[in-house]
Amino acid sequence: MSSTGTAFDPQTLESLLTDGGKVLTAPDDLASYGCDWTRIYEPAPIAVVLPKSTEEVQAIVRFANEQHMALVPSGGRTGLSAGAVAANGELVVAFDRMNQILDFNASDRIVQCQAGVVTEQLQNFAEEQDLYYPVDFASAGSSQLGGNLSTNAGGIKVIRYGMSRDWVAGLKVVTGSGEILELNRGLEKNNTGYDLRQLFIGGEGTLGFITEATMKLTRQPTGLTVMVLGLNDLTNTMDVLQAFRNKLDLTAYEFFSHEAIQHVQQHAEVQSPFETEAPYYALLEFEAISDGVLEEAMGIFEQCVESGWVLDGVISQSEAQAEKLWQLRERISESIAPRTPYKNDLSVRVSRVPEFLQEIDSVVQKEYPDFEIVWFGHIGDGNLHLNILKPEDMEKAEFFRRCETVNDLVFGIVERYEGSVSAEHGVGMVKKKYLGYTKSEAEIAVMKGIKRVFDPNGIMNPGKLIDSE
Ligand SMILES: O=C(O)CC[C@@H](O)C(=O)O
Ligand SMILES: [Zn+2]
Predict the structure, then answer these.
(1) pLDDT reported for residue 2
(2) Fewer Cβ atoms within 10 A, N terminus or C terminus of the chain?
(3) 294, 296, 302, 306: CA torsion to nearest 10
(4) pLDDT reported for residue 5
(5) Which InterPro entries match (predicted)?
(6) pTM exceeds 0.90 for this model
(7) Alpha-carbon distance 71 to 176, whole Å?
(8) Other CB atoms within 10 A of residue 58 CB
């Protein structure tokens, strides 16, 4: 289903919004609410509806079923796989007005949020309670919880804290058939059969929409200290990771190329970490809870230099310095955005990263001799972001066509290494046709069966993740 079956009347829809939600139809609103950060597809929604409550979402879903109308959920619109793009006359359900923190329980250490709560809002709330919400990424200032959960967002602290999924104590959802389900209700232990909450996390809104989430919080980290190391070889990154990981609990282990830093520096005032120029860099973070931990870290650093893996390094002496060093990594994506990058978000098991990296790198060097390649990623989780930048004088369509001709080679390697074609960005429209490189036919058939149970009329975010038939 791609568009409304009968003539759509915004007023009829608005009359169902009894808690103060509203409907927008102005061209500017359609353009901004109908797309995400992918910019591949032209937004073309029929309207945008901004509900205020779960009951209003339920009314919208029931209305859409009656009208045979497709719905697309919209959060902070920071997605990179076109999971929240409305390009086919759909009704966008935007969660901006469902942005309340509803409840907090200090002894359970859980906080109940509406789906439109912004990641940073939750992080700040946790801090006010002297606690910590550890899922973090560069788009934390605009991404919303509902979108984070629908894509099971990861980010820069996964090595220590896991993905969004690991922090969900409960969910309230409206299914595609218009039922409200309350899943898990904040329980730590609940072995009563299928955990339906997990289907909605990473489900990209194809089964139903998350309207509320009860999130776990943890203790705040102390003495976070950042090291940036210059490396002379891609594969040394893993030797360095192992050396540090054997002795320290890292809270992050990221890597990026010299080209990535150059883009950040052209885009913003961010200093080089040190004078020695290195082809690749690793950024690692740990809690320096004592002088002993710092000494240990310095000792490992020296060993890495002696082994010839590390060319130079810097360690933060204050929170402000740590934040500056993080900018080198966190601002990469925004700095290359104007070059309309073709994105790959690949993962393999950590032990297989060195070989995998080398194979992918040699295919990429051979197949894209005239394109600029930017490597970076959460390498401590086996997650690589490979961005191919569009030459300024090439048409967008021609550029994407050329990049797609190499996909079978790249994803063929991913398949051989039993990796994933989408580590943390979801599938959406962009990666849908490549799902078979990571999931078997039997798995995809089961997914389609599940979709039919929750969304019998196929109105929930159609065309994303899997096809209904
Ligand atoms: O732009 C990208 O390819 C990655 C974006 C984000 O996941 C990051 O790690 O910065
Ligand atoms: Zn990432």
Answers:
(1) 46
(2) C
(3) -160
(4) 52
(5) FAD-bd_oxidored_4_C, FAD-bd_PCMH, FAD-bd_PCMH-like_sf, FAD-bd_PCMH_sub1, FAD-bd_PCMH_sub2, FAD-linked_Oxase-like_C, FAD-oxidored/transferase_4, Oxid_FAD_bind_N
(6) yes
(7) 10
(8) 19
pLDDT at 312 (0 to 100): 97
Q: How far apart are CA 245 and CA 284, in angstroms?
A: 10
Proximal ligand: closest to the CA of 381: 2
Q: Which ligand is nearest to the CA of 386?
A: 1
Question: In the beta sheet, which residues pair with residue 118?
Answer: 144
| Mean pLDDT, residues 133-137 taken together | 96
Best probe residue, ligand 1, of 37, 137, 372, 389 (max atoms within 8 Å of C-beta): 137
Residue 385, strand partner residues: 345, 376
Cβ atoms of 72 and 461 closer than 8 Å? yes
The answer to whether 418 touches 348, Cβ cutoff 8 Å, is: yes
Single-letter amino acid code for the residue at 204: E
The angle at the Cα of 16, spanning 10 to 19, to the nearest 5 degrees, equals: 115
Tell which one of 376, 378, 424 to mutate to probe ligand 1, the residue whose CB is within 8 A of the most ligand atoms: 376
Domains parsed from the chain with CATH numbers: 10-97 (3.30.43.10), 101-219 (3.30.465.10), 224-333 (3.30.70.2190), 340-423 (3.30.70.2740)
Q: To which residue do tokens 């940036």 refer?
A: 228
- Specify the ligand 1 atom closest to the Cα of 332: 10
Interface predicted TM-score (ipTM) of this complex, two decimals: 0.99
Q: Would strands 218-219 and 22-24 be described as parallel, antiparallel, or unpaired? A: unpaired
When computed from its CA atoms, the radius of gyration of the chain, rounded to whole angstroms, is 23
Is 2 within 8 Å of 45 (Cβ atoms)?
no
C-beta neighbour count of 321 within 10 angstroms? 14
Q: CB of 343 closer than 6 A to ligand 1?
A: yes
